[in-house]
Amino acid sequence: MRNRLKVLIAGLSVAAILLAARIAPARLTLASGMAAIRQMVAAGRMAAAVRILESDYNLDSLGGSRALRDFSLIVLRQGLSDGDSFERCYAATALAAHGVWSGRAIIAEALRSPNLLIQKAAVEGLAEAENGEALEILERFYRLSDPISRAIALQALARVKAPAVMPLLVEATKDPNSSGVFWAVSGLGQMGDRDALPYLRMLLAKSVDPLVRTEAAHSMVLLGDRTSIDTLEVGLGSYDAEVAAAAALALGDARDPAAVDLLKETLASKRAAPQVRLAAAVALTHYSNRDGLPMLETALNDPKPRVVYFSSMLDHIDFNAGRALILRATNSSSQEMRLTAYEMLGRSGGEAEIKLLSAALERTGDSMDRAQIAWSLGRIGRPASIPILLEVIQDPAPETRYTAAEGLARIADKTQE
Length: 417
Description:
By secondary structure, the chain is mainly alpha-helical. Among the domains are: about 1-60, no CATH class; about 170-225; about 230-330, no CATH class; about 350-410, Leucine-rich Repeat Variant (Alpha Horseshoe), CATH 1.25.10. The protein is about 70% helix and about 0% strand. It has helices at about 10-20, 35-40, 45-55, 60-80, 85-95, 105-110, 115-130, 130-145, 145-155, 165-175, 180-190, 195-205, 210-220, 230-235, 240-255, 260-270, 275-285, 295-300, 305-315, 320-330, 335-350, 350-365, 365-380, 385-390, 400-415. α18 (about 295-300) runs parallel beside α20 and α22 packs antiparallel against α23 (about 365-380). The longest helix is centred in the N-terminal third of the chain and has 18 residues, at about 60-80. Residues about 1-30 have low confidence and may be disordered.
């Protein structure tokens, strides 16, 4: 059970008793436990708050995990008053992910914002929360919004695995020409529910958009229907580089040995666009084939536009086959590349990656890099991340501090499951 909060020490008689008992005569402060932590956070004294947390609670115990969660949420609540609208939105949606809706008004304001980037931040934060209330808000936003905002909502919902999202995604597929249908199709494949197959087959038959058809075939493959592989092979030969690259990446996910030779041919082709050849190289990593690695190595240091193509494909690399490449990407001169690599380490990594991310923190002072590293440490979700994140939470940059707080809350929640 968590330690009870200690009462305020006041009065000369009490002080005299404590002094006589030789109990820390020079350190008679306001309080200890969570009350003191709250005071320190409010005063901006994060280092002192962390010291109290570590001294008053055993973070390896259940009570310590609860204290860690409480501390993290206190820090996130501070974010609700941040001067930056993006940071307020991040704090509000991060709190919502842990069942705390004290930032509800901030979320509502962000969803009404004419700034689409703020809308997107709120929508993505709610999708990350993935609890019932957050998904209900997203559904209302989707139904009341214009086509552009609906597409933003579908793009975020495509990453949600909750079954409650499926009816909305299915509904979106019924208009093959809508701006968000691509994301709806993608989400149905990622969700893993084979009940979506009839809708995907319908789109494959009726859609005139080759990119939507390619993504429908990709999702069908992910759901175990391999009848669409022919569509992907045809798409790989498309003159539209975006379609051909998407088909190559989908063939990587298909894990179809018959596709290897076709991907090798594309990799070697002088007529194929650079992004298509890169996509073929990425796809080959899913077959433990190393033929494309030299091109991927070169792409890490290439100037734009190739680095732009590659950074968007990096998270499609098979983690085990491409781990060394992903680690090198954390040192890329392109921040987009670095952030993607950090994210991959967070989504797929374990204890070894915690050490690598810790070393990366020591190398960089960039607040966005540090925030992404903190995010990844939280997603790995191991106790070994806790002392690192307790250091990061003392960072003066709000984006880094609040991300570290959310990561600590996530680990604390996981520990209590």
